[in-house]
């Protein structure tokens, strides 16, 4: 089982991003679940979502304690939340980062999703859309297939710029 | 019992012969009656027929008919034991 | 059709596929998505139902009663405070033998305010005459909702059915599930005591004690008759659509020395705990109770029993543990866990088995 | 409009002798006809139908819990309409079940545009349980829970209902069966939410002899304490005996003094009741004149 923990702020689309990643995995023929951790989150407050991907039906509903991958949609959250808590020794970290932030001891993938969206003017209710470029980046990491990533974006967003955002993130992420 | 819900079916006497409730009984003086029908109109229990005959099996003896009769053709008479 | 969505969405799609004539509902977290989806189906025309946006849960059940009394198929959904607010109408709907189907997103009751999963809301409705089924996957939420209509409307049963799904844990998780074309799986509804304008009657009139108890007894007859109807419905569902369900689900129980018993999502997660315990050399098994009303006593054959209750009856104990003890004579290790959405993992569940003391009660997170 | 001879209340209910509710119900059902379901919450009428297995009501009656009548009617009406049936759905509820515990469901059903007629028969107290005060009990009335006389005014139910803009709204009184019949018949001819508020002078509750039921209703109208009107598409029309009462009224004292429930009313309270009457009449007259 591959377990992903996604950290974001309310309004950044983290909950939707988790669903889209799980949906892409489903399209790849895998079993997948996406779970938002609800509390009294409001716009701007830290939010956590969980994604599980497996070849077998998933029977676990509790939170992910030892993620294989941590996604940080907002770098500034790292000041507030211990995003690496419980991460597996070989666990990887994806950070939406302007300055190429690296995390010690873990393979880190920094991509500036925010700039990609802003350059394409992909803004919804004042927030740059982060989940479409994220899908591109996650596809580059091999967690979901390119075909499924494309299909998910095509089914979910009408605006062609979302495809462009995903492609740019795909290209920017260095393996 | 196969009924799923208590469903009562319509019938006279659902509350018994309410005529036994009476202390006073209405009596019509046909000499005075002008067949205006107000007694029947106002009877809460529909105990007065279209022909203005009072059904004493059910009349509860409220006395509205006598009270409202414009010709004073109805009087309430004490029931005898 | 294979699809991907939340537990709430699965319930809404099952309702769409069951084609009720009237849906009356009031929104409440975490059930809201169910009524939003149904309102969407009605608006876009994929469900030809009357959607009544009532002003309270008391009225949502009342409106379902009014509609079901005319003999049409009805649905509503609620959660937590909404469910206990409609408590009076829960008794009225079952007492009037109306086959209403309702989804309940299990959620804690205040105070303090808590929107996490807990079974205290539905458990407190156990004596109303409603059938209660607890589901543990998005697929099961869809399947159980479809089956609920067939079970409720069966003329041997004629009792309302509540599908319970854990708030957030199941209502908001996104999983793969398959929808079906029900066809004639749910026969046309034929309520024998529906209002008949041509045969006037006083429905639910004043009923003296020496008759009233006969109607009460008939509710219990319907409850008992529901057991073969459930078995038959689940078998027919499996024949037609390929997915198997039973009154309760056993996991690795054959040679088990100890079984864990729970309902809802914990009843699925505990399978992982069983695998862990087996690897350690403990012969563990699991029984996921699906139907809480009618209560079906599983075969325990002298095994050690660990019961996890996501509920509590104050002054008494865990309700599932107590009922299992009363019905089977077992001496369970009664664990109270997961109230208010308290996080309970498969590791925690495995630990309950390791520390078990039959005949005692353990509050997870309190007694540690 | 000629009142049909057919009776839907068979001889007889177990209502008290001189019961105004029975009298009202006779004409409500005559106007509604056989294709009607009455939805009845807890009230005198849920009891007086008779005891299972026989009922005095010769049309379908659905008995429901106290607070739920309007919501049950909502579901019933939607189900009938969905099936293409025109069956009248009439809630027949007391003042407690309407003004107090049932007002939320009533408000919701009116707001949703439910196609039904809601009738509140108002005997100004919880009579079924032995005369406890309700929100409809008037100032100065003694009830078992206002043993010193009620210190608060009657709730203005009609103003609350009017705020929902129902397609048809009317008042009526047990003492004027023809007026009542006409209004029920008219209400049922209009689709959408309809409301009627009917005064029901209750002999045991109001403490007057059973033969005075009709007389008491007439006094209420003559004193202007109860105004007969209908409001259709927002247009108010004063009807029947109230036309005269709008111009000339008997003093409220003539009405209060003949009822045992007002035995403790003070002179100040009587003056206040009189003032309320004058204010209400003036307000209704302004509406008739199109001033407000």
UniProtKB/TrEMBL annotation, chain A:
Limits of the Pyruvate/ketoisovalerate oxidoreductase catalytic domain: 10-171
Record-linked SUPFAM superfamilies: Pyruvate-ferredoxin oxidoreductase, PFOR, domain III
Organism from which the protein derives: Methanogenium marinum
Domain of life: Archaea
Stated name of the protein: pyruvate synthase
EC number: 1.2.7.1
NCBIfam families: PorC_KorC (TIGR02175)
One Gene Ontology term of the molecular function aspect: pyruvate synthase activity
Gene3D superfamilies: Pyruvate-ferredoxin oxidoreductase, PFOR, domain III (3.40.920.10)
PANTHER family (UniProt xref): PYRUVATE SYNTHASE SUBUNIT PORC (PTHR43366)
InterPro entries documented for this protein: Oxidoreductase_gamma_subunit, PorC_KorC, Pyrv/ketoisovalerate_OxRed_cat, Pyrv_flavodox_OxRed_cen
Catalysed reactions, semicolon-separated: 2 oxidized [2Fe-2S]-[ferredoxin] + pyruvate + CoA = 2 reduced [2Fe-2S]-[ferredoxin] + acetyl-CoA + CO2 + H(+)
Key words of the record: Oxidoreductase
TrEMBL record, chain B:
Subunit structure: Heterotetramer of one alpha, one beta, one delta and one gamma chain.
Name of the protein this chain belongs to: 4Fe-4S binding protein
InterPro entries listed in its UniProt record: 4Fe4S_Fe-S-bd, 4Fe4S_Fe_S_CS, PorD_KorD
GO molecular function, one term: 4 iron, 4 sulfur cluster binding
Domain 4Fe-4S ferredoxin-type: from-to ranges: 24-49, 50-79
Amino-acid biosynthesis among keywords: no
Superkingdom in the source lineage: Archaea
Organism this protein belongs to: Methanogenium marinum
Pfam families: Fer4
TM annotation in the entry: none
SUPFAM superfamilies, sorted: 4Fe-4S ferredoxins
Keyword Repeat: yes
TrEMBL record, chain C:
Gene3D superfamilies: 3.40.50.920, 3.40.50.970
InterPro entries in UniProt: PFOR_II, Pyruvate:ferred/Flavod_OxRd, Pyrv_Fd/Flavodoxin_OxRdtase_N, THDP-binding, Transketo_C/PFOR_II
Keywords recorded for this protein, A-Z: Oxidoreductase, Pyruvate
One MF term in the entry's GO annotations: oxidoreductase activity
Residue ranges constituting the Pyruvate:ferredoxin oxidoreductase core domain according to the UniProt record: 256-349
Pfam families listed in its UniProt record: PFOR_II (PF17147), POR_N (PF01855)
One BP annotation, GO: response to oxidative stress
Domain of life: Archaea
Keyword Oxidoreductase: yes
SUPFAM superfamilies: Thiamin diphosphate-binding fold (THDP-binding), TK C-terminal domain-like
Domain Pyruvate flavodoxin/ferredoxin oxidoreductase pyrimidine binding: start-end pairs: 14-224
NAD recorded as keyword: no
Subunit structure: Heterotetramer of one alpha, one beta, one delta and one gamma chain.
PANTHER family: PYRUVATE-FLAVODOXIN OXIDOREDUCTASE-RELATED
Protein name: Pyruvate ferredoxin oxidoreductase
Organism, scientific name: Methanogenium marinum
Lineage: Archaea, Methanobacteriati, Methanobacteriota, Stenosarchaea group, Methanomicrobia
Gene: porA
TrEMBL record, chain D:
GO molecular function: oxidoreductase activity; thiamine pyrophosphate binding
Keywords assigned: Oxidoreductase
Signal peptide range: none
InterPro entries, per database record: PorB-like, THDP-binding, TPP_enzyme_TPP-bd
Domain Thiamine pyrophosphate enzyme TPP-binding as annotated: residue spans: 53-198
Coiled coil: none
A Pfam family the protein falls into: TPP_enzyme_C
Keyword Iron: no
GO biological process: organic acid metabolic process; sulfur compound biosynthetic process
Assembly notes: Heterotetramer of one alpha, one beta, one delta and one gamma chain.
Matching PANTHER family: 2-OXOACID OXIDOREDUCTASE (FERREDOXIN), PYRUVATE SYNTHASE SUBUNIT PORB
Entry protein name: Thiamine pyrophosphate-dependent enzyme
Source organism: Methanogenium marinum
């Amino acid at each position: 089982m591959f377990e992903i923990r996604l950290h974001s702020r309310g309004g950044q689309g983290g909950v939707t991003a988790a669903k889209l990643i799980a949906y892409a995995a489903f399209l790849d023929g895998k079993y997948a679940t996406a779970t938002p951790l609800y509390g009294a989150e409001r716009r701007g407050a830290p939010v956590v979502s969980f994604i599980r991907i497996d070849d077998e039906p998933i029977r676990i509903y509790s939170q992910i304690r030892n993620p294989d991958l941590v996604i940080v949609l907002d770098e500034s959250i790292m000041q507030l939340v211990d995003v690496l808590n419980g991460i597996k020794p070989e666990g990887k970290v994806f950070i939406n980062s302007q300055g190429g932030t690296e995390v010690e001891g873990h393979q880190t993938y920094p991509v500036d999703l925010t700039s990609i969206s802003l350059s394409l003017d992909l803004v919804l209710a004042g927030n740059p859309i982060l989940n479409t470029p994220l899908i591109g980046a996650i596809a580059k990491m091999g967690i979901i297939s390119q075909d499924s990533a494309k299909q998910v974006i095509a089914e979910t967003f009408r605006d062609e710029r979302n495809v462009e955002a995903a492609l740019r993130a795909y290209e920017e992420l260095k393996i | 019992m196969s009924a799923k819900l208590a469903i009562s079916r319509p019938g006279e006497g659902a509350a018994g012969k309410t005529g036994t409730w009476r202390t006073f009984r209405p009596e019509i003086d046909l000499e005075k009656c002008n067949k205006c029908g107000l007694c029947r109109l106002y009877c809460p229990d529909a105990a007065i027929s279209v022909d203005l005959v009072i059904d004493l099996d059910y009349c509860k003896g409220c006395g509205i008919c006598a009270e409202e009769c414009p010709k004073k053709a109805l009087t309430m008479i004490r029931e005898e034991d | 059709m294979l699809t991907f969505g939340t537990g709430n969405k699965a319930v809404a799609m099952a309702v769409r596929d069951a084609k009720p004539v009237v849906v009356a509902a009031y929104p409440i977290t975490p059930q809201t998505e169910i009524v939003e989806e149904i309102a969407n189906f009605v608006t876009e025309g994929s469900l030809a139902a009357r959607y009544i946006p009532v002003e309270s849960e008391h009225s949502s059940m009342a409106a379902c009663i009014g509609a079901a009394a005319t003999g049409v198929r009805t649905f509503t959904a609620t959660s937590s405070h909404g469910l206990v607010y409609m408590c009076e109408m829960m008794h009225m709907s079952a007492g009037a033998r109306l086959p209403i189907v309702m989804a309940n997103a299990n959620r804690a009751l205040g105070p303090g305010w808590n929107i996490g999963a807990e079974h205290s809301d539905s458990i407190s409705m156990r004596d109303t005459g409603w059938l209660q089924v607890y589901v543990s996957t998005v697929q099961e939420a869809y399947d159980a909702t479809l089956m609920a209509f067939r079970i409720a409307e069966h003329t041997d049963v004629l009792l309302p059915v509540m599908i319970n799904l854990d708030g957030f844990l199941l209502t908001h998780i996104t999983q793969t599930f398959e929808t079906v074309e029900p066809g004639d799986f749910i026969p046309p509804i034929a309520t024998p005591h529906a209002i008949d304008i041509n045969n006037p009657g006083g429905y639910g009139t004043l009923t003296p004690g020496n008759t009233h108890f006969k109607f009460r007894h008939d509710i219990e007859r319907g409850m008992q008759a529901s057991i073969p109807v459930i078995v038959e419905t689940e078998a027919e569902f499996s024949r037609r659509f390929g997915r198997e369900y039973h009154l309760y689900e056993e996991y690795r129980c054959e040679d088990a020395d100890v079984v864990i018993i729970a309902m809802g999502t914990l009843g699925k997660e505990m399978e992982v705990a069983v695998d862990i315990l087996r690897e350690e050399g403990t012969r563990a098994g699991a029984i996921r109770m699906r139907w809480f009303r009618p209560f079906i006593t599983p075969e325990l054959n002298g095994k050690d029993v660990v019961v996890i209750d996501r509920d509590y009856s104050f002054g008494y104990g865990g309700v599932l543990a107590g009922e299992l003890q009363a019905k089977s004579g077992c001496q369970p290790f009664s664990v109270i866990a997961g109230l208010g959405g308290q996080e309970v993992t498969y590791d925690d569940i495995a630990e309950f088995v390791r520390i078990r003391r039959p005949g005692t009660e353990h509050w997870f997170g309190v007694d540690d | 409009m000629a009142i049909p001879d057919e009776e839907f209340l068979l001889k007889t209910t177990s209502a008290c002798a001189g019961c105004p509710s029975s009298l009202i119900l006779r004409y409500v059902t005559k106007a509604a006809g056989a294709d009607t379901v009455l939805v009845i919450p807890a009230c005198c009428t849920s009891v007086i139908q008779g005891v299972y297995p026989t009922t005095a009501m010769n049309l379908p009656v659905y008995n429901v819990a106290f607070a739920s009548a309007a919501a049950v009617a909502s579901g019933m009406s939607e189900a009938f309409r969905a099936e293409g049936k025109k069956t009248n759905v009439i809630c027949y509820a007391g003042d407690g079940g309407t003004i107090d515990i049932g007002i939320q469901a009533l408000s919701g059903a009116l707001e949703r545009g439910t196609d039904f007629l809601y009738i509140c028969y108002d005997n100004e107290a919880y009579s079924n349980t032995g005369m406890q005060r309700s929100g409809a009990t008037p100032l100065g009335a003694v009830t078992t829970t206002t043993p010193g006389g009620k210190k608060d005014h009657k709730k203005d139910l009609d103003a609350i209902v009017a705020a929902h803009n129902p397609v048809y709204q009317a008042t009526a009184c047990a003492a004027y069966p023809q007026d009542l019949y006409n209004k029920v018949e008219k209400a049922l001819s209009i689709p959408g939410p309809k409301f009627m508020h009917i005064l029901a002078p209750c002999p045991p509750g109001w403490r007057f002899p059973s033969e005075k039921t009709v007389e008491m209703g007439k006094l209420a109208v003559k004193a202007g304490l109860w105004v007969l009107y209908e409001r259709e598409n927002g247009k108010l029309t004063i009807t029947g005996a109230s036309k005269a009462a709008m111009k000339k009224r008997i003093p409220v004292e003539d009405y209060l003094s003949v009822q045992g429930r007002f035995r403790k009313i003070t002179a100040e309270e009587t003056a206040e009741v009189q003032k309320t009457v004058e204010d209400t009449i003036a307000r209704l007259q302004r509406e008739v004149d199109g001033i407000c």
